[in-house]
Specification:
3 strands; alpha+beta; elongated; single chain; about 170 residues; about 40% helix
Length: about 170
């Protein structure tokens, strides 16, 4: 009796199997990219939905997470291009998903997650904090592209508060 892997190998050639592994790695690296960019909590509120014509499409469960990811957009795009040079990634897009579309799982494996409603409550919203000192803000963090100073400061405070919450855990 043949194993499933033997049957699949007979059906798919090496090139197709390698391409499938690359796509799988792209979807699996999201948590790592969020941690690398200083926003590990974002991985629980976002995901890579698909890649289409060189555009990586991500989904988030709240507009605040969309803003945070947009502030890191150029860095995320650069990271995707570096990790997957053969995929021809040319863009990164972020959209809101329907409430409950993202799944929660304590062990972090999206394949084994039961669907859970992820409603936003007051406890998930950041408290108002003072603007971070210039020394606290990483240079090259993506904020330099934002022209509206008030909006930039709001995002920086939000990112700082999220980092503080993560440090408390």
């Amino acid at each position: 009796m043949k194993r499933a892997g033997d049957v699949l190998s007979a059906i798919f050639d090496e090139g197709m199997m390698e391409k499938a592994k690359t796509y799988s790695a792209l979807f699996s690296c999201w948590q790592d990219l969020m941690e690398k960019n200083g926003i590990p909590a974002a991985a629980d509120h976002s995901r890579v939905k698909t890649i289409d014509r060189g555009i990586v499409w991500a989904e988030v469960d709240h507009p605040g997470w969309k803003q945070i990811l947009q502030s890191k957009e150029s860095k995320l795009l650069s990271d995707f291009r570096y990790r997957f040079p053969k995929m021809g990634i040319s863009g990164f897009s972020i959209s809101l998903c329907k409430p409950g579309a993202l799944r929660q799982n304590p062990d972090g494996d999206p394949a084994n997650r039961p669907a859970v409603e992820t409603a936003v409550t007051e406890k998930h919203l950041p408290e108002r904090v003072a603007a971070p000192d210039a020394a606290d803000v990483q240079t090259g963090s993506g904020y330099e592209a934002i022209k509206d100073e008030a909006f930039k400061e709001t995002l920086m405070r939000l990112e700082k508060r999220i980092a503080e919450k993560n440090a408390e855990r």
